[in-house]
């Protein structure tokens, strides 16, 4: 019985430590109501502009792994707005093909 409790405690501890985004933004009705982590000032300004133009509610978590950013959105963020926010990231690559 003790091993079940120890395994459960280890899983909870791992989940708490694993979900550490570099930055977390919370949007409410087209405004940023809270942000946490290392948020770049220019990125924050761009996110405010995007949220004013396309009002929505939801959260955005940005994880950094080596050279790339990985972004997770809540389900309430529209797909069009997700694309715009991804392209606003500081290290975002354009999807155009150069010849």
TrEMBL record:
It comes from the Bacteria. The lineage of its organism: Bacteria, Pseudomonadati, Pseudomonadota, Gammaproteobacteria, Vibrionales. This is DUF3634 domain-containing protein. InterPro entries: DUF3634. It comes from Vibrio inusitatus NBRC 102082.
């Amino acid at each position: 019985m003790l091993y079940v409790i120890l395994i459960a405690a280890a899983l909870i501890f791992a989940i708490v430590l694993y979900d550490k985004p570099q930055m977390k933004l919370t949007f409410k009705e087209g405004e940023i109501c809270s942000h946490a982590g290392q948020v770049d000032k220019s990125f924050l300004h761009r996110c405010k502009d995007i949220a004013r133009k396309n009002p929505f509610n939801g959260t955005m978590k940005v994880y950094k792994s080596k050279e790339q950013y990985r972004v997770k959105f809540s389900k309430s963020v529209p797909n069009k707005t997700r694309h715009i926010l991804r392209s606003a990231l500081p290290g975002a690559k354009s999807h155009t093909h150069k010849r």
